[in-house]
C-alpha cells in the first residue's frame, strides 16, 4: 500500500475586500502573530513536510520535489476549468476508494506563490490563539484542526451558494485547493499516528482517542456524498484510510522480522525456525500491546481497533509465510513452516495469556487451502525419499553388525537386534509429527511408512541370507524382530499396516525354515544308524537327541509363539525321520531281531517323547506314531495287528496305503492276512479321507511327508 504523500498549503487566499498584490514569501518563515496578512508558503511547507515525512518516510528533498510537481499539475488543471467554473469537477474532490491514496497537490512552485484575488482572510485560517490549521495538525490537535476546517468548508459552501465566485472561478479553485490540502494533511497525520503507535516510543492514549474522535466526527459531518456531486461535503473516508494505515504498519513491522537475513540465507530448518520464532515474538508483542494499551484508548470513542489490527497482522503474517514457503527447500524446512502455522500461530495460547485469544473463526486461513495442500504434497514427496534413505541406513547398520561377527544381545530373555526399535522409532516419529500438522498428513505419512517398510523387509531378508551371519542366534533375533514389528505396528496402525502382515509373516517363515535347516544338516547323518543291526546293540539315538537339546536352547530366546512353533517343528521332524528310517530299513529283521527291533523302537519312542516333553513341546499328538509301528512289528497275536493298524490310521489321517503296505512288509505276514488287512486299511483310509474332507487336520502332517519306495518285498506282500 503506498504511503500518504506530502501535503502543503495551497495558494494563499485573501478576503475579497483586500487588494491582490503579488508576494514572494521566504521559504521556511513562519507568521509572527495573527496581525500579519496571511501565512506564508513556508509555514505550510514546514507543517506539512513534517507530517508527510512521518507518514511516508521520504527525505525532505524528495518531499519538496513531489510537492512542486503536484502543485504544477493541480494549478494547470484548475486554470483549465476556470472558464466553466464548475467546482463539481474540482480535482481536489476525494473520489479515491478507501485503501488508495492519491498524490497530495502542493502550491509550492519553485518557492513562489501568488495570492488569490478572492480568498480567505487571515482569521479564517487561524484559531483564537493565533495558531493556523497547519500548526494544529503539526501539534496533533487533530480535533481542533478538523473543526476549523469544517467551519471553513461550510463558509466556502455558503459563498459558493451566494454566487460570490461567478466572476472569479480561479479564486474558488484556489480556496478549495487550500481546503483540500489541509484535509489531506490531517489524513496524513492520522497515518503518521498509526505508524508510530507500535513503534519504540509509541503514542499516548489521548492522541489515539482524539484520532478516533476525528474519524467519527468526519463521518458524522460527511455521511453521504452530496446529491449534486459537489466535492464540498464529500466523505473523506478516513476510516478506510485509517484501516489502510493499520495494514501498512502491520506489513512493515512483520517484514522487519528477520529482515537482516535473506530467505535463502536461512539454511536448514534451524535458521528458518529462528526466523519464525522472531516473527511470532513480534506479532505476539504487538498484538498484546494493541489489546492492553491501544484498544482501550480507541474504545473510549467506540472505535473497533482490535479487529482491525488483528486482521492486519493476520494478513501480513500470511503474506510473509507465503514468501518463506516459496523459498523453502527440503523436508525439514517445509515441516517447520507447516508446524509453525498449525501449532505455534494456530495455538490458543499464541498471545501468551488466556484472555488474549487469536480467534480463528472470523479470520481466513493463514494459508489458502490450495497452498496448504501443495505444501503438504511437497512435504510428503520429500518425506518418502527421506524415509527410504532412513531404511537404507538401517540396513547398512545391520550389515555392519553381521560383518563384525558379533552375537546378538539377549534382552529380557530374547535374542535382540536393534532393527525393530529403529523401525518403530522411525515410523512413530514421522507419523506423530505429521499428526501434529493435520489428520490428512498423518494418514499420508502412515501409508508412506507402510509402503517403504513393505519394500524394506524383502531386501533385509535377502541381504541377511546372503551374509556370513546366518546362524541360530541371528536367525532367532530376526524372527523376534519380525514378530515385534508385525504385532506392534498392526496394533498401533490397524488400518494402514494391515498389508504389511504378509511380507513380515513370509520373512518369519523363511527364517524359521533356515533355522530348522541348520539342525537338519547337523543331525541328518545320525538317523542313518537307526533301524540297523548296530542300532540293536548300541544307543545311537542319544547323540542325536543331545544335538536336538542343544539346538532347542536357542529357541528359549525366541518369542514364545514362534519358539513353541519351531520346537514343535523340531519334534515333528525327529519323529518323521525316525519313521522314515523304520519304513525304509537298510537291513531286514526276522525272528528275534524283529522282536528286538520292536522293543528298541518302543524305548526310542519313549525317550523321544520324554525329551520333548521336558523341552516344553506341546505336540503330544506325535507320541503315538512310533509306538503303533513298533506294536505292529512286535505283536505276537496276529489278530491284534488289525487293532494297532486301526489306531494308527485314526491317529494320523494323512497316512497312505503305501505306508500301510511298507509296515506290513516289515511284519512279513501271510498272503491271506495281508490281503485282509490291506482291504480293511483301504476302508479305514476312505472313511478318514471323507471325515477329513474339510482339511481341519491339515497342520497335523506326518506320514504325508514320508516317501517310501516300492521294493520286491512290498510287491510280494501286495500279491
Tell me what you see in this structure.
With 719 residues, this protein is mainly α. The chain is built from 24 helices and 2 strands. It has helices at 41-56, 60-80, 133-138, 142-161, 169-197, 205-221, 238-256, 268-299, 305-327, 330-344, 369-403, 419-435, 439-465, 472-492, 501-527, 533-537, 541-555, 560-583, 592-615, 625-634, 641-651, 657-667, 671-691, 712-718, and strands spanning 409-411, 414-416. A two-stranded antiparallel sheet has the order 1-2. Strand 1 and strand 2 (414-416) form a beta hairpin. The longest helix has 35 residues, at 369-403.
Keywords:
mainly alpha; 24 helices
Radius of gyration: 50 Å
Proportion of residues in helical segments: 55-70%
Q: Which segments are poorly predicted (pLDDT under 50) over 5 or more consecutive residues?
A: 1-123
Number of strands: 2
With helices defined by DSSP (H or I, 4 residues minimum), what is the helix count? 24
Put the structure in a nutshell.
The protein is mostly helical and 719 residues long. 63% of the residues lie in helices and 1% in strands.
